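Sample entry (473 residues):
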Amino acid sequence: MKHSIMHPIGALALMAFVATTTLTAEPTHARQPNGTALDRYVYQDDPHYAWRIVQSVPTPEATLHMLEMTSQKWLTEKEVDRPIWKHWLNITVPKKVMSDTALLFIGGGSNKDAQPGEPDKRLAQAAVGVGTVVAELKMIPNQPLVFPDDGQELYEDAMIAYTWDKYLKTGDEKWPARLPMTKAAVRAMDTITAMCASEEGGQISVRQFVVAGGSKRGWTTWTTAAVDKRVRGIFPIVIDMLNVVPSFKHHFAAYGFYAPAVGDYESKGIMKWQDTEAYQNLMKIVEPFEYRDRLTMPKYVINATGDQFFLPDSWRFYWSELQGPKHLRYVPNGEHSLRETDAYETLVAGYACMVHDLPLPQLEWESPSPGMVKVQVRGMKPAEVHVWSADNPKARDFRVDTIGRSWKSNPLRAVDDEGRVYQARIEAPKKGYRAFLVEMTFHQKPMPAPMKMTTGVYVIPDVLPHAEKAGNL
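Predicted structure, serialized as C-alpha cells:
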C-alpha cells in the first residue's frame, strides 16, 4: 500500500502595562454543524468566558502580552471542585507581522502554578523569526481536579480516564474531558484575535491559526481543528493513537500487556469497554479519526520512535485514511516528552512554510516486501537522506525505556538521476525484531531551521508475538 505523507529574545523591559478591566466577548469562530456532543459543547454560549491583560512587556523585537483567560464553566460545584476553567495565555506580537495567521501552541501546567514570568523563549523567538503572532495556552486541562465520589487530586490521564469512566457508565455526554479542553483552545483563538485587534494589542489582524500541542494537547489539536474552520494547519505531536481500538489491540498483541504509561486507563477498566457500543459512542465524540472528513487542512504529525504510550508502527491504522495534505515525522530515539531531540525545529520550520505559502515536500512510500521501503519525494528536494534502524532481540518493543536511545542511521543514496527516489533494504535480525524508517532533511528559506520528514516505521519480522493472548481480551 502506498502512503502520502520547537537567538533568545532580548532581556525583558522593566516597564509593563497592567490592565484593570476584564473583557468579555461573544465567540467569533465559524460554527460547525451541530453534529456531535463535541460540537454542541464547544458552541454552547457560556457567560463565564472572559479575559484580561495582566502584563504587556515591550522588547526591541516584540511585545510580550500575558493574559488571564476564563474559558468556561464545566460541570457544577457538586460534580467537581473547580468548575471554572482559568488559563494563562502568553501572546508574542513581533514588531513586524507578516501574516494574519497565528500559531497557537496548546500547553499543560497546573492550577497551582504561579503566574509565568515570561513566554517560552523558543516560541517568542519563533514569532520574531517567522513574523507572526505566536501564543501559548497554558493549563490544558485545568488540573488537578477533585471529583467528590473519587476524592483524589487527579492530573492528566488519571483525570481523563475518570471522565471516560463516567461517560461509559452513565451515557451523559457532558463528561468527557476532551470537551472543555477543546473549548478552551477555541476560546483562546477568540481571545488572541480580540486582543490583537485592540489598541493594547497593536491593532493587528489575526484571522487564521496553525495549532500545535503534544500528548493530551496533541489530541486537543486534532479536535480543535475538527470544530473550528479558522484552523488552516495543525501539528499534532506524540499522540500516535488515531483509530484507537485497532491501535490498542495491536499494542497488546505486540507487548502482551498494556504499557505502564496507559495504566490510568487500564486501572479504570477502560480497555474492557473497547468492543462495546458505549465505547463506540464515546469515540464518536472524542476520537480524531471519527472527524477525519473535516480534517482536510495540512497536517504535520510528529511522533517518537520510543514513545512510552504508543507503538512506532501505529501510523498504519490511520495514515492512509487521512485526507488532504499530510506530512509525517517519527523522531529517532525520541521518547514521549521529545526531550533532547530536534522536534521543535521541525515544528518551527514547518510552520514557517505553512504561513508563507511555501509548498511542503510530499513523501510517498510503499513497502513492496518485508524489509524494503521505496520512497519518492515531490516538490522540495532533500539535502540529506538517512535510513534509521533499531533492534530488540527479546521483544517487539522499541520504547526508550526498553532499548535506550539505540536507533542508528546510515546515509541513503537516490536510485534515480533526479534525486527523488530512494530505496532501502533492511535485513531481518537473527534474533528478535528490527524497526526502521527513512528520514529526509530539507533546507530552504524561509525555514529558520532544517525540516525533517520520515516514512512510517516498519518492523521486521512483522509478527505479533502475543496475538493469541490479545484475541482473548
